[in-house]
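Quiz preparation item.
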């Protein structure tokens, strides 16, 4: 068991013994990874922040059902994915536009050494808009499965567990997402 897992287990025991403040340590340890996956699924910062809050509140309420042999990080991550899916589903039902970035977090983007030309700015903006549009064409399940597989590097078994679906259904969701995104990419190549 790693040091963080040991610290998590100690914090969980403290919370279950009545020390509510100990939960703050769990939030501090895991909020960054929870925010990252929430942002990739919801596509905007405000929704991602709300998902983080919802996930940790749900986690706190369900902490007694947490099995101590499990990894808290994985457990809260799964709760966050479910919260993010709920958020995206509610937003889709309200008929609002959703934009989902496909690239990495802003702090991990490599900045080119040369000064971009005006044409580069236009092309970059068009590609970004196209990526957002392509991700928007996916269902929430496909978008989440794709995100977990290709951005979070989860196995099919992990994706199936997080989404509470059969491994074969998870594989099909990833396949459909990749297929749709490839079709959109082919359209972009035809247009340019």
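Solution:
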């Amino acid at each position: 068991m790693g040091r963080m897992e040991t610290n998590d287990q100690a914090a969980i025991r403290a919370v279950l013994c009545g020390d509510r403040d100990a939960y703050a340590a769990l939030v501090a340890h895991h909020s960054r990874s929870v925010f990252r996956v929430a942002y990739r699924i919801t596509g905007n910062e405000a929704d991602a922040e709300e998902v983080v809050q919802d996930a940790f509140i749900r986690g706190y309420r369900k902490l007694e059902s947490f099995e101590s042999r499990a990894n808290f990080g994985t457990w809260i991550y799964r709760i966050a994915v479910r919260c993010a899916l709920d958020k995206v589903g509610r937003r889709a039902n309200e008929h609002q536009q959703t934009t989902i970035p496909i690239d990495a977090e802003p702090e991990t983007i490599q900045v080119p050494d040369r000064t971009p030309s005006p044409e580069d700015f236009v092309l970059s903006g068009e590609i970004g808009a196209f990526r957002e549009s392509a991700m928007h064409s996916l269902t929430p399940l496909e978008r989440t499965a794709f995100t977990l597989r290709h951005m979070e590097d989860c196995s099919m078994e992990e994706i199936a567990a997080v989404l509470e679906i059969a491994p074969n259904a998870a594989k099909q969701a990833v396949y459909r997402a990749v297929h749709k995104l490839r079709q959109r990419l082919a359209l972009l190549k035809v247009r340019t």
